[in-house]
Every structure is written in structure tokens, then in C-alpha cells.
Amino acid sequence: LLASCASENVTVVYGVEGGTISVNCTYNPWQQRWREKSWCRQVEESKCQRVVSARRFWLPFLRNRNGTTFIRDDIHQGILTVTMEQLQKQDAGLYQCITDFLGETNSLRKVQVEVLTAILETQMPEEPRAVQSISRIPSGANFTLFYILAGFLGAKLVVAVLIFLIGNSRKSKKNPSLTEQQVLPFPRDGINSFWESSA
Fold first, then answer.
1. Which strand (E) or helix (H) includes residue 11?
2. What is the pTM of this model?
3. pLDDT tens sequence across 97-145
4. Cys-Cys with 73: which of 20, 54, 63, 101 at CB 3.0–4.6 Å?
5. How many domains does the chain have?
6. Is 147 left (phi over 0), alpha (psi -120 to 50) or beta?
7. Strand order in the sheet with 10-16
């Protein structure tokens, strides 16, 4: 994993304990082809201790491998590749790809190596673990969804009741009830005597 810190021009490389990381440092093959190139570890602000150097046929004493770290130089493409294997916590730190020519040292790239603790696999099989995580997540979500739906349905019910009541009250104002329209005075003698007296 790579992350760039633009403010300090440092590339952060993440590796896992026991794992491997590779870092590519590019350079101009025409200008720096024959220069000595190294991978060094920053031990002080102004001191970078060489770990490995790209071997040249006229410099056979240079070590292009040091323990689990080795370096390869592609002079045609202008790419210096550093590989760190079997990473340990103590490998974390600030490193640099550098070139050296007649005592003049230039940095090609600054790299902060971070070593993460390996995640141990649990004894539980993968499938049941996924089932547990699935069943655990919706339980809270089900309650939330239930409350949302209940609130929504309750609001709809209240609105429906209000609309019904308002509609009935307006209807009764416009059309008086049938009992008010059909109340007729009936005399005690019956219907016939009522019609006779009115005639």
C-alpha cells in the first residue's frame, strides 16, 4: 500500500509482518546511469545509513543484498527497485533511494516504511462468521425500520381520520339532516283529522 505525503515529499509504504514490499525509485538513465545507487535508512536527521547498494562490475564490494533486503538497478529504464522480505516491526522507519557520485549524494525518493501487525485467522470458519455479522447488523436496523413504518402508518391514519371528520362536518352544514326536514306536526286524532282541520 502506498500513500504520498506531499508536504514532506515522503511516500508511505505499508507492509504486513512477514510480508514483502517493493519500492521503485526512478531516475534519468542518461544522467545517472553510471552513478552508485543505494537504499539507506535514516538514523539521524543528516545521516542515512546504507543498507544495500546496486552492484557495478567495477565495484564488486558493494552488497546488493543484505539479509532480507535486496536491490536491482535497471539502467536502461532508469528504475531502481528495492525489495524487503519477511518484514518485522523493527524494519519500520524512514528510508531513501540515493545516488552517489564523487562524494555528491542526491536523494531519488524518501520512503516511510510502516509495518502492520498481521491479522490472525480465527478458529471459526469463514461462512458462519459472515452469517453472524449479517444477523448482527440488521437487528438494530429492523427496530429502526419498524419504528419508521409504524410512525408513517400512524400519521396516515391520523390524516385519514381528520379528512373524514372535516368532510362530514361540511356535508352536515350544507344538507340538514333528514330528521330536521321530515318533522311534521301530527295531531292526536291521527292523520285524517289533521287533513280535515287543515282543509
1. strand 10-16
2. 0.54
3. 999 888 888 999 999 999 999 775 544 454 444 444 344 445 555 556 6
4. 54
5. 1
6. alpha
7. 2-5, 10-16, 104-116, 93-101, 36-44, 47-53
